[in-house]
C-alpha cells in the first residue's frame, strides 16, 4: 500500500532499491534549488514512472542514484541517498554504475563504438571483466538485437539505436535501470518495442525499472507505480491506476492523463456533473486509463450505446474510411487554399535524391526520387518510422543538405545555387537535438543572436516578447545547455519564433514537452500563421498531427508513401502498419467501439458517443408512444 508522500509503507531498507531523504540541490549559477527537500523510496523489482512539468527536477533526481550528482554535476548538496540498501556517499560513479544502468535522453551520445557487438561489450571490457563478450551478447539477446550484432551503428534505425543504448546499459547486469524519456524521438511502433523490452526486463529478469516520461498512455500500459514531482519535491508515489486518476493534480502541473481518461472525465462532466478530483474520490468512481478498460467503462456507464463491436470488431481501420470526416481539424484551423484559388508553391522537390556516404565509402540513399510541392498556407506534418527520411527532407528545404540528383527550390530559389546565409533570412530550421542550436552563454543571447546580427529594429522588444511567450524570462540569464530537456526545447522554439521566417521547419517540436508547453507551441504556431507562409513539422506525435495539420505526408524508406488529409492517412490500416505508425489512443477506442467515425480528439469522441447514445434513446422512445 502506497502512502501519498513517498513510498510503500511495507518497504524495509533491505527491500529498497532507491531511498532518498530530504535532498536539496542547487546548480551553480542558479539561485533556486532544483531539488528542494525531495524524499522517495522505491522497492526492488518495481516499475516506476516519474512525471512532472519541465524543470521540476525529474532528471536531476535520477542523477542522484548513480552518483552523477553531486560527484560530476557539482553544486550545493545536502540530504541522504541510499542505493540498494547502502549509502551512495563515498561510492564512485564507476562503482555505482555497476549496479545502476542509465539511458539518457540523447541516447545517440552513448553509442561510441563502430558495431553493435562492440558497443554492447564496451562497458564490461572497460571494467576488465574477462567474460565481457558473453555479457555483451547476453545484453543484446535481452533486447532482441542478437541477430544484428555485426551491423554498423550508422546503419541502425532510431529504435534499434535506442535498444542498443539499453543493451549497453544492461551489459554490466545492473540491478536498476533508469531510462530518461524512452520514447521522445521514436515512432509509435519502436516506442512500443522499447516499453515491451523494459517490461520483459522487469518481469522476467527482476530488474528495477525507472522511467522519466511525459506520455501517460505508455505509463498506463506498462508501469506499476507513478511518482509526481513539482518544484523539486515528490508530491506522491501511487499505483498507476490511482495516480493517473488524480486529474486535478495532473492538470495543475500541465500533465495530460491518457486520452481515454480525459474522454471519460469529459463525458462524466456532461452527464454526471463530476467536476473535481474530490467529487471523484467521494463517489468511489475510477476512470479508465487504457483502451481495454475504456471499452468496459463506457459499456457500463453508457448502456444505451450500440456496443455490438466490443465482441465483433471491424477487421480493418480502412472499413471505416468512407465514414471518416474529410478533415480532422477544426475548420477555422484549416488554411489550405480552395480549389478556385491558385496554389502558390513555396517548396518544390523535383526527382530529388540524397545519399550519405558511410564506412567503406558505401553510399546510403535516404531520399529516393521525391516529387512533391508544398504550398502557401499549408500546415504540413511529415510522419513515418525512424529512418524514413523526415529530418533529411527538412535539411534539404533548409539548404543544410544538397541533393546529389534532382533539385529543391525554396521560395523561388534553387538551394544548390543559394548560400545558407541567403536562405537563413527566409527559412528557420529547429533541430531535433536542442543542444545543436546553442552557441551563446545565456538564453537571452540565444534568442537575440539572429536579430542582432541582422540588425532587426526593436530587437530587444521582440526578444522580450518571445521570452515571455515561452515562459523563459526567469531563465533568460541561464546557460541553455544546463537547462532540462523540456526547457531546452522551449529555447529552440523561441529562437525560431523570433526569426519570423517565411518557411518554418520544426523537427520533433513536441519531444520532451509537458502539456502546458505543448499547448503553448500550438498557440505559437497559430500566431506564426500571420507572417509564416508555410509551416512543416516532422513528428511522431500523432495527437499533434490530428490537432494541427491540414496535410500529412507519410515517408517510408526515403519515398512518399502517402500524401493527404489526416483523415485519409489514419483510415488506412496497412499504411499505418508498414510505415511504423499507429492510431492515437482515442482513435483506437473509437475503432474498437464501432463508432461511425475515428475521433481525432477526446472532445470529438465524447460528442460522437453522446450523439450515438441520444440517437438510440430517441429511437427507443419513438417506439414507445406511452412515454411521449
Textual characterization of the structure:
InterPro entries: AAA+_ATPase, ABC_transporter-like_ATP-bd, ABC_transporter-like_CS, ABC_transpr_CbiO/EcfA_su, ECF_ABC_transporter_ATP-bd, P-loop_NTPase. It comes from Paenibacillus pabuli. The protein is built from 24 helices and 20 strands. It starts with 15 loop residues before the first strand and ends in a 6-residue tail after the last helix. The protein has a 6-stranded mixed beta sheet, with helices on both faces. Strands 16-17-18-13-19-20 form a 6-stranded mixed beta sheet, with helices on both faces. Strands 2-1-4-5 form a 4-stranded antiparallel beta sheet, with helices on one face. The chain is an alpha/beta fold. It has 3 domains: 13-245, P-loop containing nucleotide triphosphate hydrolases (Rossmann fold, 3-Layer(aba) Sandwich); 260-324 and 588-620, no CATH class; 331-584, P-loop containing nucleotide triphosphate hydrolases (Rossmann fold), CATH 3.40.50.300. Mean pLDDT is 83; it is low at 5-10, 307-340 and 616-628. 48% of the residues are buried. Helix content is 36%, strand content 20%.
